[in-house]
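Subgroup meeting minutes
Present: P.N., E.W., G.H.
Scribe: E.W.

1. P.N. recapped why we're keeping a running log of single-chain structure predictions: easier to compare across weeks, and new members can see raw inputs and outputs side by side.
2. G.H. added today's entry (446 aa).
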Amino acid sequence: MDRVVAQCGRSGQRNRLLPPRVVVYFVLAMCLFSGQGYEEVARLLTHGLTWAKRWSGSWQVPTTGAISRARAKLGPEPLKALFASVARPLATESTPGAFYGRWRLMAIDGTVFDVPDSQENVAHFGRPKTHRTQRCAYPQVRVVALAECGTHAITTAALGPCTTSELVLARELFGHLGEDDLLLADRGFTGLELWRAASAGGADLLWRIRSHQVLPVREELPDGSYLSEIVAARDHRKRADPEMVRVIEYTLDDPGQDAPYRLITTVLDPDAAPATELAALYHQRWEFENTLDELKTHQRGPAQVLRSRSPEGVEQEVWAHLLVHHAIRTLMHDAAEQAGLDPDRLSFTRSIRLARRQVTAQAAFSPDRLTAALTDGLREITARLLPTRRRRSNPRVVKRKMSNFGVKRDEHYTWPQPTRDPADAMTIAPHWRTAPINPSAKARRS
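Output recorded in log:
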């Protein structure tokens, strides 16, 4: 932490009540105790040192104004650099659900955070509009991130105004992918240029694609998939400069399932990855949705607005939230690794509560007691496991009126739930084999 602060030019020249290192710890604690005020967070962070009378007599809890000025002086750069230094994939070869063959399973997706309604935040981040052309209540910052499916660890992220597309921010992340990564993405990530940018570093891709996109059949493969090509949107007629892809189309014979699915991948050899296995593998992408739930619901708090009224403070706060989430996920991975468990069986809620309790006490611990506390914490995390992940299906609706999603109605509360695993309910069936033949479809196949 000291190295990162020094590299960012934030090292203090004087002995202050809030030196840069303390401010970094405070910002992290502020995200861990997201429902508490500034002064209360400072008290919680230093509670373990109350036994030291000499120390407690020489240090006072700073005022809210002093903490705000110290945060502004620190800026977002040290938190961003610290995240870049520590965020990395966690899974080993023994981590269940983290690998497929030689590939590490990674997912990309985006989300937004509500930020305070100040003039500075509105000017910098913008305020989104709903499909009813009405403005949302708060400005929003957009975050796009890469996460490891097996451990939910966010390994890199990019921030921007809500007016900036997820596709633009995603380009900043592709340089962190390697040859042994398999990137999963939903239908929001599309386009030939984005596809080539994501695979430029040697990573393989498995993306869902929109049903209306034209994919001419170039060669049928024995596993039910076929080779096709994608082109830039402006070249959909001339089909100049195409990129070869493998297409997997399938349906799920199970209640509550969205069908049909269309996937494209850079893995062209069906022997290296059969169609049924890749189709079942795509559903691991939903682990990213669980990651966002951990970050935004359990850590930040449900529907809670960030604290910072300046763009620099907002960015600092978001990087701190990502750091805290990665730290907790690292703790959970270590606990699962030692116990030989699947990280999915460990509770993020229980782990973050443990972290909150330990932070208020560990400042007074000697190194031996810290080691013992860590051992006890790992034992507590694995003491009670979550039940095996149940099969779920939910409609894309919300209760909030001002949203681009549909409104939640009575029928959505009794939405049919799947009864079988995707691999068991799957039928590989290219749509052009089952759909009625028409001249335009016949022309596309040829």
